[in-house]
Amino acid sequence: MTTVSTFDFLLPDVGEGLEEAEIVNWKVAVGQQIDVNQPMVEIESAKSLVELPSPYAGTVLEFLAKEGEIVRVGTAIIRLQIAGSVQTDAKSDSGKTEFLVGSISKEESRRQRRPRNFGINPAMTETTAEPTPPAAAVASGSAGLASPPVRKLARDLGIDISGLVGSGPGGAVTREDVMEVADKGKTKSMAPEPASASRETRTPIRGVRRAMAEAMVSSAFTAPHVTEWATFDITASMQLLEKLRNQPDFAAIKLSPLPLLARAMCIAAAKTQEVNSFWNESTQEIVTKHYVNLGIATATDRGLLVPNVKNADQLTLKGLTVAIADVVQAARTGKTEPSQMTGGTMSITNIGVFGIDAGTPILPPGQSAIISLGAVVERPWVVNGEIVVRSVTTLALSFDHRLIDGAQGSTFLSDIAKMLQEPSQLIA
Predict the structure, then answer these.
(1) Tell me: the pLDDT tens digits for 328-358?
(2) In 10 A of CB 404, how many CB atoms?
(3) Pairing of strands 294-300, 303-305
(4) How far is CA 46 from the centre of its chain?
(5) Paired residues of 393 in beta bridges
(6) What is the band of 110 on the pLDDT scale with cuts at 50, 70, 90?
(7) Are 155 and 173 in contact (CB under 8 A)?
(8) What distance in Å separates the CA atoms of residue 169 and residue 138, rounded to the nearest whole number?
(9) DSSP 8-state assignment for residue 212
(10) Mean pLDDT of 77-89
(11) Which residue has the higher pLDDT, 16 or 392?
């Protein structure tokens, strides 16, 4: 006879302070045999896509959450059948107790506060018997099943959920179900509108897009934004890039004006330190950073992300070019680490890649300066009294006027423009 345990895997906190995540894609099937550390599910938090591995080898019994469902941290999302007893902790090389992924409650995770040592508080039963057949993927539900917060929401909106079978585990009515009924003015049991008659598409606001929207609204109505523009001749920088492309050290690196701007920002921030600080409302302090974690605004299929390059001010032009390419690639492929999405000190947004000359960027929360890089275009330009064709671009600097006066913002922007006009300092 074999000892068999049933193990419920809890959604872990994959980054400090994660509250919930969306189940994007199950990578296993009910009845499938899986190995230790085999990816089971891909989730999307407000910051990144993450694959969660299994802490045990065993058999998938049941999915407890559906693809597309928003699940709070600490909620069971999949049930496994494993041989032997469930072990929730183990000793590390240092002798400290380490917890298995998916086995500790959110409250315990907060007490431990060990980033990425996610949690497990297994719902399990142990028997001495042969393994039982896998359960069905989704249990049948009961009409009107809902948590107290969902019931209160329904009451507040005047919605009767007693006859409603929801989309949650076991047919539970979720917040999204209630809001959908409120939007449509009818229960889900009624026949849907024919596709041919539909003139609208409704997309749930969740994950990265929701987090970015909330952050932008908070920033726009918290920090008093001021924006300044500078249009100038960038011909010397474009000539430098062409020269670097012919050097062996840069042969395999994609060069653009973006890393030159990034390098200039890091150098200029050392002179005007106010641009690399933030206003701490809770402590009523201005916190000045003596390092630069440079955010790179990146358009992705999931919305706008702003991963940052750590200690960008310590990198050479080549190192900065490679680091920017790496964080942009990670963001576009959904592989951004949570740590890359936090701790940014100032940022760049490159709208020039879309052929746009200038814009008014909004500050990422917790930052005091962001620069938009416009398109580099050939224009008639006056040089020594003569009209010649030159490469010209426009930079737009938005800054928090609580921290940065007009003179400081102007100095910062002017210093950057001068370095891009005469870029020798950028490769030193």
Answers:
(1) 999 998 888 888 988 999 999 999 999 999 9
(2) 21
(3) antiparallel
(4) 5
(5) 232
(6) very low
(7) no
(8) 7
(9) H
(10) 77
(11) 392
One-letter identity of residue 265: M
pLDDT higher than 70, residue 177 = yes
Rounded to 5 degrees, φ, ψ at 221 are -105, 10
Contact between 375 and 356 under an 8 Å Cβ cutoff? The reply is yes
Catalytic residue among 225, 401, 402, 418: 401
Query: Position of tokens 């680091």?
Result: 323
290 is an active site residue? no
Neighbours of 333 (CB within 10 A): 11
How many CA atoms does the CB half-sphere of 388 hold within 13 Å?
A: 8
DSSP 8-state code for residue 422: S
Structural domains of the chain sorted by starting position, each given as residue range(s) with its CATH number in brackets:
3-128 (2.40.50.100), 148-197 (4.10.320), 210-427 (3.30.559.10)
CA distances from 336 to 113, 208, 325 (A): 21, 12, 12
Q: Answer whether residue 195 shows pLDDT above 60.
A: no
**Residue found under tokens 């069905």:** 136
With residue 75 as reference, give the H or E element that holds it.
none
Q: What is the pLDDT, as a whole number, of residue 204? A: 78
Backbone angles phi, psi at 170, to 5 degrees: 70, 15
